[in-house]
Design brief:
Elements lengths: L42 H8 L5 H8 L3 H7 L2 H10 L9 H17 L2 E5 L8 E6 L3 E6 L4 E5 L5 E5 L6 E10 L2 E10 L4 E5 L4 E6 L6 E6 L4 E6 L4 E5 L4 E6 L6 E7 L2 E6 L4 E5 L5 E5 L6 E6 L3 E6 L4 E5 L5 E5 L6 E7 L2 E6 L3 E6 L4 E7 L5 E6 L3 E6 L4 E5 L4 E5 L6 E7 L3 E9 L8 E9 L8 H4 L2
Antiparallel strand pairs: 1-32, 2-3, 3-4, 4-5, 6-7, 7-8, 8-9, 10-11, 11-12, 12-13, 14-15, 15-16, 16-17, 18-19, 19-20, 20-21, 22-23, 23-24, 24-25, 26-27, 27-28, 28-29, 30-31, 31-32
Helix pairs in contact: 4-5
Length: 463
């Protein structure tokens, strides 16, 4: 085990501690200290004392006191306790190695990771859609093209061509050890929906039927997908066979957003209503009436639905009854961004504000005056919110403490899209060209990698 000198460590998050002893121990050797008090105790009691240390910096310093302390600190139970304190859920392998990797990733999130900048591979046009996994980053553009990059290196792999209009929505699924095949669905201005084998870069099906731009889509699994269009309809497809299952009729204006949970689809429209659909029968179960202006975003967890509207309100609905459970007030203009996870809803508005809501009480528990212009992208997990806006800025927030952690990247002209997972984040933006006086930007992609354990020893990252 390497030397772990971490006197000046600022941990990514310090959980509440019930420790009856100080976080920082004076471990310096002094002439009057003739006896190692831990060595005089039974090992079980010595480990119990060390288990009260919940800061890795203190544990790392303790590791340097003596060989005996070093041997105690190698005990897996200490690292298991640290995992529990920091809410790192390990199910397999060494708790020590797992904790150190997770702590390293959390530190890199807060301080900045390795950034790969991709400023080639995009032709002129705006970016409309983004999705990535550990292998592929897929970008949809309004120039008819879908660009595919290697997520790790940033190198362009292929361009998927065939759409005759801008690509406005895409999603892919698959791509794990149990299911390596990736199915990509795309739709746009040419009214067609295309099904691709992403690994091979091959077109499987062209799904025709919409009579106007496909504005939104969601894949449930490798069999079922739903698309929504400016033609006021939604369509349910068997994407494995390339066949139409249902046409969902009822909206009176463009379908702007859609979400899926099991056998339920929900849709929001510029007609100011949302609808709940049964995917098996194709029937509308409930019409959700209450908003007084266009609905721009909709999310569901299968129990409740949240809708955001130009009327500046968020409404929460029951999936079972279609009843409006609550109207969430606070935003002062369009609510165009929502994400729902567990009992937490995060909203972003054209007022530049982020709000965090508790779905058990329907109360706002955090509010951030986040940006100087409309929030155009947001994503959150149990630690962070990442947001982007028309002010050209991307910001990282501490969702629990309600504070700004850092500016995530240098300001740009436009931030197109953002997305992140546990170890990476992708930002697509337009920056000013340095090689021309013309007021024309170029599309740049940044891939932020926070898993630095492959490039450094884990002990070093705790310094």
């Amino acid at each position: 085990m390497g030397t772990l000198m971490t006197d000046d460590l600022s941990p990514p998050a310090t959980p509440p501690s019930a420790s009856p002893i100080p976080h920082r121990l004076d471990l310096s050797s002094k002439p009057r200290l003739k006896v190692d008090f831990l060595k005089e105790l039974p090992p079980e009691l010595a480990l119990h004392i060390l288990s009260y240390i919940d800061l890795p910096s203190t544990l790392s310093r303790a590791n340097c006191v003596s060989k005996y302390w070093n041997s105690l600190i190698r005990d897996e139970n200490l690292w298991k306790s640290l995992c529990k304190t920091h809410q790192y859920n390990n199910s397999v392998g060494s708790y020590r190695d797992y904790f150190k990797r997770k702590y390293s990733i959390a530190s890199a999130w807060n301080q900045g990771g390795k950034v790969t900048t991709v400023d080639g591979g995009f032709s002129h046009g705006l970016v409309t859609s983004l999705q990535f996994d550990e292998k592929y980053t897929v970008v949809g553009c309004d120039n008819h093209r879908i660009e595919v990059f290697d997520t790790n290196s940033g190198k362009k792999i292929k361009t998927l061509e065939g759409h005759e209009g801008g690509v406005w929505a895409l999603q892919f699924i698959g791509g794990n050890e149990h299911d390596p095949e990736r199915i990509l669905l795309s739709g746009g201005c040419d009214r067609d929906v295309r099904v691709w084998d992403l690994n091979r870069g091959k077109l499987r099906h062209v799904l025709r039927g919409h009579t106007s731009t496909v504005r939104c889509l969601k894949i449930r699994d490798k069999r079922i997908a739903v698309t929504g269009s400016r033609d006021t309809t939604l369509r349910v497809w068997d994407i494995k066979r390339g066949t139409l299952l249902h046409v969902l009729l009822g909206h009176q204006a463009s379908v702007r957003c859609v979400d899926i949970h099991n056998d339920i689809a929900v849709s929001g429209s510029y007609d100011s209503t949302a609808r709940i659909w049964d995917l098996k029968s194709g029937q509308c179960k409930h019409v959700l009436i209450g908003h007084v202006s266009q609905i721009y975003t909709i999310v569901t967890n299968g129990t409740i639905i949240a809708t955001g509207s130009l009327d500046a309100h968020i409404r929460i609905w029951s999936v079972e009854t279609g009843e409006c459970l609550s109207t969430l007030h606070g935003h002062t203009s369009l609510v165009g961004q929502l994400q729902l996870s567990g009992t937490t809803l995060v909203s972003g508005g054209a007022d530049g504000c982020l709000r965090v809501w508790d779905m058990e009480t329907f109360e706002c528990i955090q509010q951030f005056s986040a940006h100087d212009n409309s929030i155009t992208c947001l994503q959150f997990d149990d630690q962070h919110i990442l947001s982007a806006a028309n002010d050209g800025k991307v910001k990282l927030w501490d969702i629990k403490r309600g504070r700004l952690l850092r500016n995530f990247t240098q300001p740009s002209k436009i931030v197109w899209k953002i997305q992140f997972n546990d170890t990476k984040a992708v930002v697509l933006m337009q920056r000013q060209r340095s090689d021309t006086s013309i007021d024309e930007g170029k599309t740049v992609m940044e891939i932020h990698d926070f898993d630095l354990s492959s490039n450094h020893t884990i002990d070093d990252t705790l310094q």
